[in-house]
Amino acid sequence: MELFADFLSKIDNPDYRERTEELLKWIPEKFPHLAPVVKWNQPMFTDHDTFIIGFSVAKHHLAVAPERAAMIHFANDIEASRYDHTKELIRIKWNQPVDYGLLEKMIEFNIVDKADCSTFWRK
User: Fold this and answer.
1) What is the structure's pLDDT at 123?
2) Residue 123 lies in a domain
3) Residues 55-94: pLDDT tens digits?
4) Does some domain include residue 120?
5) Fewer Cβ within 10 Å of end Cβ, the chain: N or C?
């Protein structure tokens, strides 16, 4: 969490900060081999230097960015979750529960799908 301390300190609302920190702690507990990094002022997790998942915070939501391929692969699950989303990210409103099962599936998908990826982003 030390790596993400500066990012977390900039979240003004203590409830939002706590919720974001909880999520950022859950990932290395579940996926200890993923490397935490900060790029473009956003917390992310990588596997062999390739992007797996990233996060950002906004006034009304926590954004989850798993890359477009995962968004397409889990389109039905994302719809079922009732999360607002775009082609590239999921918006979890601060009053919505975090669907850790969905996040776990997206992370696992990216790890497997990008096992042979030699670039940060998919091409």
Assistant:
1) 81
2) no
3) 999 999 999 999 999 999 999 999 999 999 999 999 999 9
4) no
5) C
Hey, is 93 helix, strand or coil? strand
Supply the pTM of this predicted model. Answer: 0.95
- Residues 6 or more apart whose Cβ sits within 8 Å of residue 110: 47, 51, 52, 53, 66, 67, 69, 70
- pLDDT tens string 92-101: 999 999 999 9
H or E element, residue 22: helix 14-30
Domain membership flag for residue 119: no
Give me 116's structure tokens.
């042979």
